[in-house]
């Protein structure tokens, strides 16, 4: 806690306490009084005073805050009117708590004999112990003229020498009171490069469903611009709420005397702050939330790094870079759309800009530590913009509209990252295509294999049927060699390819018998040769000769299919002739 600078004044009836706390959170200020014990708290300040007389609360007490000087004026009536309080200028004495925090050693000390208990003594000491922290009076020291500057128009310095220890996270810049503008910029650029996440950027580039919704959101500024183009006055198109009007009444009344360099710095800082605000407005679709203050401060280098820009393009490049490094949505198209929102806002003029600044002030006011930035920047901007040049504001809108920021300008390697991502996606698509083709080919082969198996099975069945048919045809072609052995030949026709019946007869009959029919089956065809002659000769045999043949028994030559295939037709005929000759000799 910081002990603020303070002063006390008195008259016959009242004591006035003036507390200088320029960065206090006024809305949360607390004041406590009990007779001569006075306490004041407003983060990050705390003050406790022990007064030389007693005060009362009877309804005449009052307190107010001067925003111009950053001072609290607190007034209490005296318990005894006309009493003079002595030593109001003895600051150290007033800061000391009542009594003393340590007791003088006793004249008689009882030594511990091991049996006695000192619990009671400790209890007495606890009851009289003062828990108040020691306070040191704050004495303002002059800030060197060469000290680094920041704040509105770069007119402030030395603020963070005491505040940064108590208000952690106000800004990202470490030790801003010890770094020049150039040093702060170098550290900022380095921090942005380290923070940039290429995976996050590529993810938002290709998975842009949420980004598309944000891009289609239509802020109120476009409707207001349409109304102005239709001839409706800006006072009607852009309205202030009752809360905003109340804030405007409480703003300090100041006049700013700025040289050209300071004025340029103020305009460029305004561009930076409004860009950050419009990003938050679009990404939240007009509804601020608990992270809105963080978003505005992170995107605005003015608020997070106390940056002082030198050109409009430098401001836009910084805004683009930070929108691609810090917030949730990091998309190039979204950053470009915010630039168009910025152009529209400046074209609407001072009234719309003031309304945006009041919203920024409200958002930062509700933050735990960032309300200090209102005192450094936003409150002064709210006062200054009301008297800013309308002509310069419109000219600035046209300049912003003409500037085209490229991906090379932000120096984050966006083009290389997008190229690598595209190559990776194409390679992945090719791999997917190859795998898909392989799967399709495999399925086709399986299908053809199934069809081939089915065809082969069908062919086997057909071949089996053909063989059966051929055998039946061969079996159905029976050559009656003799009337007596016809039935015997018919019984053997299913298992034989060639059938030959030779009976013992005369030499002339044998010569005729040599021309016996050879039945050949090839491709289900039956070739019958000399069938008629042999049959006729057989029928002309006399009954006597037939009886002789019967008594001697016939010789039936049967050749199996395997013998026919192994020996061939000519070999079979030769063997048949030899067998017939042998039968004849017998």
From TrEMBL:
It is found in: Cytoplasm, Cytosol; Nucleus, Nucleoplasm. GO terms for cellular component: cytosol; nucleoplasm. Residues 1-89 form the CS domain. Pfam families: SHQ1 (PF04925), SHQ1-like_CS (PF21413). Its main location: cytoplasm. GO terms for biological process: box H/ACA snoRNP assembly. InterPro entries: CS_dom (IPR007052), HSP20-like_chaperone (IPR008978), Shq1 (IPR039742), SHQ1-like_CS (IPR048696), Shq1_C (IPR007009). Residues 440-475 are annotated as: Disordered. Residues 445-473 have a biased composition (Acidic residues). Keywords: Cytoplasm, Nucleus. One of its GO terms (molecular function) is unfolded protein binding. Belongs to the SHQ1 family. This is Protein SHQ1 homolog. It comes from Dreissena polymorpha (Zebra mussel). The lineage of its organism: Eukaryota, Metazoa, Spiralia, Lophotrochozoa, Mollusca.
């Amino acid at each position: 806690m910081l002990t603020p600078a303070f002063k006390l004044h008195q008259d016959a009836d009242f004591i006035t306490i003036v507390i200088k706390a320029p960065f206090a959170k006024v809305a949360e200020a607390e004041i406590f009084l009990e007779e001569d014990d006075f306490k004041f708290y407003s983060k990050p300040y705390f003050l406790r005073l022990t007064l030389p007389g007693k005060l009362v609360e009877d309804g005449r007490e009052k307190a107010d805050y001067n925003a111009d000087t950053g001072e609290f004026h607190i007034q209490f009536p005296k318990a005894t009117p006309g009493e003079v309080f002595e030593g109001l200028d003895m600051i150290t004495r007033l800061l000391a708590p009542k009594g003393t925090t340590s007791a003088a050693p006793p004249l008689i000390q009882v030594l511990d004999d091991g049996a006695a208990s000192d619990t009671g003594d400790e209890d007495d000491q606890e009851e009289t112990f003062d828990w108040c922290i020691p306070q040191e009076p704050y004495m303002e020291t002059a800030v060197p003229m060469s000290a680094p500057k920041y704040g509105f128009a770069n007119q402030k310095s030395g603020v963070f020498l005491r505040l940064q220890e108590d208000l952690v996270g106000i800004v990202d810049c470490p030790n801003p009171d010890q770094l020049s503008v150039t040093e702060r910029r170098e550290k900022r650029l380095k921090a942005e490069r380290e923070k940039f996440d290429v995976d996050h950027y590529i993810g938002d580039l290709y998975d842009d469903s949420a980004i598309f919704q944000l891009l289609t959101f239509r802020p109120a500024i476009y409707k207001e611009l349409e109304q102005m183009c239709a001839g409706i006055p800006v006072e009607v198109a852009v309205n202030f709420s009752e809360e905003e009007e109340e804030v405007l009444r409480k703003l300090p009344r100041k006049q700013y005397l700025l040289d050209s360099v300071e004025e340029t710095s103020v305009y460029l800082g305004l561009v930076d702050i409004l860009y950050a605000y419009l990003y938050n407005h679009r990404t939240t679709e007009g509804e601020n939330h608990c992270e809105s203050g963080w978003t505005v401060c992170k995107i605005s280098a003015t608020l997070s790094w106390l940056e002082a820009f030198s050109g409009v393009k430098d401001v836009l490049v910084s805004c683009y870079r930070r929108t691609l490094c810090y917030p949730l949505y990091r998309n190039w198209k979204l950053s470009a759309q915010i630039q168009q929102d910025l152009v529209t806002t400046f074209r609407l003029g001072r009234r719309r800009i003031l309304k945006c600044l009041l919203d920024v002030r409200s958002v930062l006011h509700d933050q735990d530590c960032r309300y200090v930035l209102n005192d450094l920047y936003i409150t002064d901007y709210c006062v200054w913009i009301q008297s800013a040049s309308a002509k310069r504001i419109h000219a600035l809108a046209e300049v912003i509209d003409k500037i085209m920021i490229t991906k090379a300008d932000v120096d984050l390697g966006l083009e290389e990252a997008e190229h690598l991502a595209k190559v990776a996606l194409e390679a992945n698509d090719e791999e997917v295509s190859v795998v898909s083709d392989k799967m399709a080919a495999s399925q086709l082969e399986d299908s053809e294999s199934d069809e081939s198996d089915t065809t082969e099975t069908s062919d086997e069945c057909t071949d089996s049927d053909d063989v059966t048919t051929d055998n039946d045809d061969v079996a159905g072609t029976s050559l009656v060699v003799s009337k007596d052995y016809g039935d015997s030949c018919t019984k053997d026709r299913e298992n034989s390819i060639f059938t030959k019946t030779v009976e013992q007869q005369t030499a002339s009959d044998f010569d005729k018998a040599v021309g016996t029919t050879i039945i050949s089956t090839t491709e289900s065809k039956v070739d019958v040769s000399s069938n008629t002659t042999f049959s006729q000769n057989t029928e002309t045999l006399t009954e006597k000769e037939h009886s002789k043949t019967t008594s001697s028994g016939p010789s039936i030559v049967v050749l199996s299919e395997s013998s026919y295939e192994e020996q061939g037709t000519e070999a079979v005929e030769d063997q048949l002739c030899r067998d017939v000759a042998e039968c004849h000799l017998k």
